[in-house]
Each structure stands twice: as C-alpha cells, then as structure tokens.
Amino acid sequence: MLIIGLTGSIGMGKSTTSKMFRRLRVPVFDADATVHALLAPGGRAFRPVIERFPEALKDGRIDRVALGARVFGRKAELRALERIIHPLVRDEQRRFIATHARRRAPMVVLDIPLLFEGGGDAHVDAVLVVSAPNWIQARRVLARPGMTRAKFRDILSKQVPDAEKRRGADAVIQTGLGHGHAFRSLKLALDGFSRHRHEMWKHHWHRPRIRRPAGPRRRPGG
User: Fold this and answer.
1) Above pLDDT 70, what percent of the chain?
2) CB neighbours (10 Å) of residue 190?
3) Cα–Cα nearest to 107, from 220, 167, 33, 187
4) Which of 35, 142, 151, 187 has its CA 20 to 30 A from that of 95?
5) What is the pLDDT of residue 51?
C-alpha cells in the first residue's frame, strides 16, 4: 500500500485537495479532523486538555478559539498542549493505516499540515505539496474569522517556507489556477505514483533535506 503525505502551508488549498482525493475514492486521514474529534466531549483529549487549560471550557465544550488564544505566543503552553494531543493523533493515524492495509487499499493519504515540520516526510512513500501564489494565500487566510496579520505571521514563522516544501515534494499541486486545473494535476500525480509505486520506497530516502523552523521538533501527525 502506497502511503502519500499531503501537506502545504496555511491557506494553500490542502482541504480542497483532500476532498479531491475522496472524490477519487482514495482514503484520507485528516489530522485536523482527528484533533477536532479528540477535543470533542467524550474525546480522548477532552479531559486532559480541560484539566490543563480549564479556561478553554465553555458551555461544556472546549472553545478552540479560547484555547488558541491561551497558547498563542506562549511556547511552554503550546508544548504542553502538543504533549497531550500529538500522541493521540499518532495512535489514530496508526489505526487508519492498519485498517486500510487489511482492506488491501492500493494507496492512502495522510493529510498532515506539519508533515515536514514534524519529520513525517520520512515515514511516507510520496509527498504531495499544495501551493499557490503568496497573494492568494494571504487573501484566503485573512478572510478567516478571527485571523489577523499578526497571527498569520506567527503561523508562517512556525512552518517550513512554501519554496522549501515544493523542493522536497514528489509532486506539487498548484491551487491558484482553478479547481479544474488542480484536479487534473492531482490525477496525473496519482497516475505517476501508481506507475512507479515499487520505486517510491527507495526514492523517499533520497529526497532533499528540508530546513525546519528552529525550536523543538514536532512529531509526525502534529
């Protein structure tokens, strides 16, 4: 089974590309959706998070905006949150891979925003990066509720630059040229992966080294 890592900087169109994979009937593990489920009432991260960050509890649920505000710009607090969530995300990821391996799926996708930042590119057979011009990225991100230019800059400072990600990719999907162009590019990339699946394992050992942001290294699935 070919394991494809899907990643891209904030606002580059990764969520839309994930939907395209599902349209093509390729199973997708969504790291962000997994975090949402873990933080929901009854989720495995719910109680540990509210015990560590009680101010994030609003009306019986974790308010993600309040939680984000609590850790924004506070490295120690962010690391504490990551220590709770990341191991649980990795557990879910392993279950996902094992399930689809038993079902003999030809390929699966791990949709992980911080794939390069966490070194997860070393654990997949192929890396697909979504990209778009900077001005399109900024327009998309700043249109999000609660987003500010300061937050946008802070997020970018924690991510591997887009140019570096593209350099370390096995395929790049340009999402700024319209949905149709991106979908056709994705199908071409998957056709190429399918044709060369037996070479991908050897190939991933020879990808260019990616310069990661300074600071503690994040784990795959983060």
Assistant:
1) 88
2) 22
3) 187
4) 187
5) 93
